[in-house]
């Protein structure tokens, strides 16, 4: 074991930030960004120092970052390797800095350690300025927080600005994402995707993203679409098509509200998180684990037994009733969440929480691109609406044909909880935007219903 030799400002940056982290955990049960901000003020290059002993894996993209991060983290951990992660979802530069400082020791261990880090799309270039990752993962690109990111092509450029700084990093990319093909970069690339689809749909929806060829702007054709604009695409005009896949879903053998049984590269895996989007997350994690030479038995066990990240298909028991919290933040993700809910044949209750804070995106007009009409086919006992924009979501649901006589206006988390406790049936699905989900979980934590906030 040898001692780190660091600059004096780095030393004080780490010590002070560690004290702030301890105080934040004790007093506020969190505080994941502020310590990092302080550290960066004291030493703008602190990431170079605190990441030295890690093989860093960065996970970015619009949807699936947190779940994929959790899956990969557990695969590495169960391979008996030392690994850390920013499991609170604090994925900006300051939050990532806090994560590394929290795990920093002034003694350097000889064995290699891993850091599986979720990173915001716009922050990739801020991290690769100081860190050379072993692997960078991009899950997908959808319209999200248009006031912050702009269109998907802008988001792609932000990510590529970060990747171009580290040509040594291996890339694990979603091959079904048309924006991620033919990137003209020196990095080694592993592509994953689907070789089959449940419904063999070939017609892209009018509200789908990235419908036009990145090379010639002609409309894509598809052999099949998995969801939104993802699938086996090709351009009739210029010949651009999906790249060759190294890891692929060949068959979806079972799809339920509990999970999925799939065949990947001729082997069967059960993914205990439901929905097509979680099959993508599992496939991405498997592809990364294979690159890290993790044993197949460990991969299969982790996919079958993975625990939900907070707010991502998280199940909570309230007086014998199951409360399932699902984060929703854009049309593509919301549609997949609704498709997953529709797999449940029981009598269900729905709670929709819509906020418009900075982290959610100020513009909530995107809810009109969500296919809420699918809910008309379900056996819904009660529909609860809440959040700062509760009337917007109520109007959207009424227009979609949901029975507004069963609407319950949840002006406060207290009323929402009391309504949930009185609901008929065994399950309540809570679909919430980011800050609405965080606020509701904090409320449940204060009530003692959730024991662990982060």
From TrEMBL:
A UniProt-annotated Pfam family: MurT_C
Family to which this protein belongs: Belongs to the MurCDEF family. MurT subfamily.
InterPro entries in the record: Folylpolyglutamate_synth_CS, Lipid_II_synth_MurT, Mur-like_cat_sf, Mur_ligase_cen, MurT_C
PROSITE patterns, sorted: FOLYLPOLYGLU_SYNT_1 (PS01011)
Pathway info: Cell wall biogenesis; peptidoglycan biosynthesis
Gene Ontology BP annotations: cell wall organization; peptidoglycan biosynthetic process; regulation of cell shape
This enzyme's EC code(s): 6.3.5.13
Residue numbers binding Zn(2+): 213, 216, 235, 238
UniProt KW keywords: ATP-binding, Cell shape, Cell wall biogenesis/degradation, Ligase, Metal-binding, Nucleotide-binding, Peptidoglycan synthesis, Zinc
Protein name per Swiss-Prot or TrEMBL: Lipid II isoglutaminyl synthase (glutamine-hydrolyzing) subunit MurT
Organism taxonomic ancestry: Bacteria, Bacillati, Bacillota, Clostridia, Eubacteriales
Segments forming a coiled coil: none
Assembly: Forms a heterodimer with GatD.
Domain Mur ligase central: 59-237
Domain Lipid II isoglutaminyl synthase (glutamine-hydrolyzing) subunit MurT C-terminal positions: 327-437
Source species: Clostridium pasteurianum DSM 525 = ATCC 6013
Source organism superkingdom: Bacteria
């Amino acid at each position: 074991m040898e001692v780190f030799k660091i600059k004096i400002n780095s030393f004080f940056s780490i010590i002070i930030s560690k004290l702030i982290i301890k105080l934040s955990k004790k007093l506020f049960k969190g505080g994941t960004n502020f310590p990092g901000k302080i550290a960066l003020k004291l030493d703008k290059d602190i990431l170079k120092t605190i990441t030295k002993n890690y093989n860093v894996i960065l996970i970015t993209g619009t949807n699936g970052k947190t779940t994929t991060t959790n899956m990969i983290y557990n695969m590495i951990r169960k391979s008996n390797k030392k690994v850390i992660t920013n499991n609170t979802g604090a994925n900006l530069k300051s939050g990532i800095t806090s994560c590394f400082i929290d795990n920093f020791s002034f003694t350097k261990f000889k064995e290699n350690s891993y850091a599986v880090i979720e990173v915001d799309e716009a922050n990739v270039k801020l991290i690769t300025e100081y860190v050379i990752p072993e692997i960078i993962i991009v899950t997908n690109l959808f319209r999200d927080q248009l006031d912050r990111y702009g269109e998907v092509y802008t988001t792609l450029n932000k990510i590529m600005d970060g990747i171009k700084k580290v040509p040594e990093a291996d890339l694990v990319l979603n091959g079904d994402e048309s924006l991620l093909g033919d990137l003209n970069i020196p990095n080694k690339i592993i592509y994953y995707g689907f070789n089959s689809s449940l419904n063999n749909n070939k017609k892209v929806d009018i509200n789908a993203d990235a419908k036009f060829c990145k090379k010639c702007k002609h409309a894509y054709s598809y052999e099949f679409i998995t969801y939104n604009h993802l699938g086996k695409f090709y351009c009739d005009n210029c010949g651009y098509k999906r790249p060759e896949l190294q890891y692929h879903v060949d068959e979806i053998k079972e799809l339920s509200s509990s999970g999925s049984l799939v065949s990947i590269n001729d082997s069967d895996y059960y993914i205990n998180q439901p929905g097509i989007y979680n099959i993508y997350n599992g496939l991405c994690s498997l592809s990364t684990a294979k690159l890290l030479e993790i044993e197949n038995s460990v991969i299969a066990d982790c996919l079958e037994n993975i625990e939900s990240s907070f707010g991502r298909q998280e199940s909570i028991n309230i007086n014998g009733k199951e409360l399932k919290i699902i984060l929703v933040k854009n049309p593509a993700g919301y549609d997949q969440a609704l498709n997953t809910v529709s797999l449940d044949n029981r009598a269900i209750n729905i709670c929709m929480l819509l906020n418009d804070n900075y982290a959610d995106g100020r513009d909530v007009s995107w809810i009109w691109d969500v296919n809420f009409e699918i809910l008309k086919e379900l056996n819904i006992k009660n529909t609860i609406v809440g959040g700062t924009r509760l009337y917007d979501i109520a109007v959207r649901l009424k227009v979609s044909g949901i029975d507004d006589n069963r609407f319950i206006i949840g002006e406060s988390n207290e009323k929402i909880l009391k309504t949930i406790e009185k609901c008929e049936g065994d399950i309540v699905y809570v679909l919430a935007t980011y800050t609405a989900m965080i606020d509701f979980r904090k409320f449940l934590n204060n009530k003692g219903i959730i024991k662990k906030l982060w």
